[in-house]
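Researcher: Good morning. I'm working through a list of sequences from a screen, and I'd like to move beyond sequence-only analysis. For each chain I'm collecting a predicted structure so we can compare shapes side by side. This is the next one on the list. No need for commentary yet; just the structure.
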Amino acid sequence: MLIRMLPSRREVTLDGRMRVGEILRHLGCVPGTVMVIRGEELLSNEDVVANGDTIEVRNVISGG
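Model: Good morning. Structure tokens for this chain:
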């Protein structure tokens, strides 16, 4: 799977099938501080990502 980290534009490649939560732990991201997107779909920590998938991990930014 190809993982694109935004806004840093870093790319990471991982092999195998993993749940989003496992991917975030591998990347050192804290769940709730990022959104994980595959195509047009927002993924939860329990969704599975497989080889051949491309996902984006985007920082969550809130404003007041």
